[in-house]
Amino acid sequence: MADGEKTGDGQTGAQMHWRALESLYASAPVNSLFASELKIVGEGLSRITFDVDERVFHAAGAAHGTIYFKMLDDAAFYAANTMVSDRFLLTTSFNLHFARPIKAGRVIAEGKWISGRRRVLMGEARLLDQDGEEVGRGTGTFMRSQIKLSGLSGYRVPDGK
Fold it and tell me: Does this model's pTM top 0.70?
């Protein structure tokens, strides 16, 4: 199906791909550890909302850096994977910049595809705390893998969407 062609339920091929990516995110076992949700908001754009609490704190009482990396990498990755509908991407590098500590609350990771469509893609993401302040930023490169999206059990359009 062409990206702009609509299905019987009014979704375009691109929108079906986005819903399937959201399902893939939700199906990843690691995401059961986090109160988070991915939403693809447009071509090359993603948003992950998640809740930070003391379970992910380091010894000084703020979110550990792994939380920054996880959410920034995921947001940039899924924004980039909206541009590729046949293969799973792999993160090949990621640069992370911490701006301030996250104490607790709802945090949003906004991802954006920057460039590339064939073999290597680039994406960026930023983290916003519950007050809308930027607390971190990252850029990554992602490479097409040999893994077909269609072969992954979590990559499916959920019923009713």
Answer: yes
Q: Taking Cα atoms as reference points, which of 119, 120, 138, 137 lies closest to residue 128? A: 137
The neighbouring-strand residues paired with 136 are: 98, 127
* Domain made up of 13-150: CATH architecture: Roll (3.10)
pLDDT (tens digit, 9 = 90+) per residue, 70-101?
999 999 999 999 999 999 999 999 999 999 99
- Helices within 3-138 (DSSP H only): 13-27, 65-81
Strand 87-98 relative to strand 120-128, pairing:
unpaired
1-32 pLDDT per residue, tens: 445 555 545 678 999 999 999 999 999 999 99
Torsion of CA 127, 130, 131, 137, to 10 degrees: -10
* Distances, alpha carbon 83 to alpha carbons 33, 59, 123, 159, in Å: 27, 39, 11, 23
State the DSSP string of 45-67: EEEEEEEE-GGGB-TTSSB-HHH
Buried/exposed 70-105: b ≥16 CB within 10 Å, e otherwise: bbbbbbbbbbbbbbbbeebbebeebebeeeeebebe
Tell the residue number behind the tokens 């998640």, with chain if given: 50
Q: Domain locations in the chain?
A: 13-150
Cα(149)–Cα(23) distance, integer angstroms? 12
